[in-house]
Amino acid sequence: MAGVLDLILEPFSYAFMVRGLIAAVLVGVVCALVGSYVVLRGMAFFGDALAHAVLPGVAVGYLVGEGARGPLFWWALGTAVAASLGIGAIKRRTKFKEDTAIGIIFAGMFALGIALISSIRSYAVDLTHFLFGDVLGVSSADLWLTGISGGLVILTIIAFYKEFLVLSFDPILATTLRLPAQFFEYLLLVLIAVAIVVSLQTVGVALMVAMLVTPAATAYLLTRNLPRMMALAAAIAAASGVIGLYISFYVSVASGSAIVLTCTAIFLLVWGIQAFRQRSSSKA
Amino acid sequence: MDGMRLVDRLKGLRTPRFGEAHREGASTLEVSGLSVRYGARYALQDVSFDLGKGERVAVVGPNGAGKSTLFRVIAGVEQPSSGAVKVYGNQPGQHVCIAYLPQRSQVDWHFPVNVTEAVMMGRVGRIGYLHNPSTEDWRHVRQCLAVVGMSNLADRQIGELSGGQQQRMFIARALAQEADLMLMDEPLTGLDTPAQEEIFSILDELRQQQVTVLVATHDLNQAAERFDKIMLLNTRLLGFGSAEEIYTRDRLLQAYGGHLRLVETEDGVLVLSDICCDEDGN
Fold this sequence. Notes:
The complex is a heterodimer of chains A (284) and B (282).
Chain A: H1 2-9, H2 15-40, H3 44-53, H4 55-65, H5 69-93, H6 98-119, H7 127-132, H8 140-159, H9 161-169, H10 171-176, H11 181-222, H12 226-251, H13 255-283
Helix pairs in contact in A: 2-8, 2-11, 2-12, 3-5, 3-6, 3-11, 4-5, 4-6, 5-6, 5-11, 8-11, 11-12, 11-13, 12-13
Chain B: H1 3-12, E1 29-38, E2 41-51, E3 56-60, H2 67-75, E4 82-87, E5 98-101, H3 115-120, H4 124-127, H5 135-147, H6 163-176, E6 181-185, H7 193-208, E7 212-216, H8 220-226, E8 229-234, E9 236-241, H9 243-246, H10 249-256, E10 260-264, E11 270-274
Parallel strand pairs in B: 3-7, 3-8, 5-6, 6-7
Antiparallel strand pairs in B: 1-2, 1-4, 8-9, 10-11
Helix pairs in contact in B: 5-6, 6-7
């Protein structure tokens, strides 16, 4: 028994692990809440694209702030908002469908980010951190920034729950109720952008979309009540963050991928159990 | 700055209340010279008509005739290229009393809400920001469900409803919105006769409550039998009035071209069927 307890407690003796665990749980909860809307509205590709599109902002922010997190955060956020507005503009002003608009912006911005990073030698080391995250490198200052901005996202989602609900289920209803539909549409994009930026350090841009969609999708399998779906998604994401970090600590795999793989495993497990149950109940 | 005051201000900010934008003596719905153009193509061209309180109108016409576009403009979801829509004398955007009931095929029925939650959505504007539904709101929603005969389905997932129940749920949502003018996009398409009859008995109830209803439909016989007026639409307004006035050979051919079977019997009555229709009206 003592052995198991030691295994559980040992990571807590390292300050970087404690900070990493807090960050992983925080980011998981924020992404799961925002991600519930991403899943219900079919915005997974948009989320993935937005995550990749922040890379040039990250690069510039890194250069300007000389590695400090504050400027990096704001540059990344600004880039994400600019990218989502750009996607909206292409969709509205041309005959292309949204996924084409997303593809153009996403690939272009991501390429710009890689070009910026590769052209400056000192970046080379950190490229993998931006792409795949470095949750164990989280500082206390990062944690504060993550906590405050993540907290704001959670508060906004709770405060405007019924407005987001109407907008997601039936945008025309939102208009006939004379809600500021356009404002809430943009607000949701900003919330997705903030969720992405606070998750940069945990899972990185390449795996970001998993934090948005996988826990929410798993919860969607389990319940058909939206508040319960959000709560379950948050719990699954937080648990994945903790389990993933433990795996990363003991097996020494990259932390971001360990967290995402845990999310995926939980999804497959839930899906498998449900499929098995449905098959056995239809047989009986 | 003062955070609490901001929250209070936001709480006080509500959408226009029922009846506020209703000008005394104005028509329920007045459409004049309405055109909607997408590039070079007209979806609606120079449509004008006037509608009184409590009237029940069938909007008929082939696919792509502009029925959905007309509804979207009346609801204030889309802006006209020219012309004007006045509801009780004011622009649609100033009203919360216009309900648009979507085609059932355009709704995500897997969305994780139950019937009560979906109907409560009709009251979100009235509940106001940062407020939860009051006991009065819950009572109102229960009443709306009773009107459409769905009290026993209040906790049912929306995905588990039959087509007729889905349609009645939308009517309940429009009632929860306290709508004066309901725009129903093909509510009867795909429903069996008993389900259609349930809808019609609710429509009778709505007429008694002086609710004005526009229904897009493909069933020309039903339009003639069960509605006060028929609006024949194919980009232009080809006729607006009683079945006798509207269902003339020339007008119908103008609207439908070859997509309509016309049989002239001995006493000159036309037997008609719209053979072009499928699920989507646009």
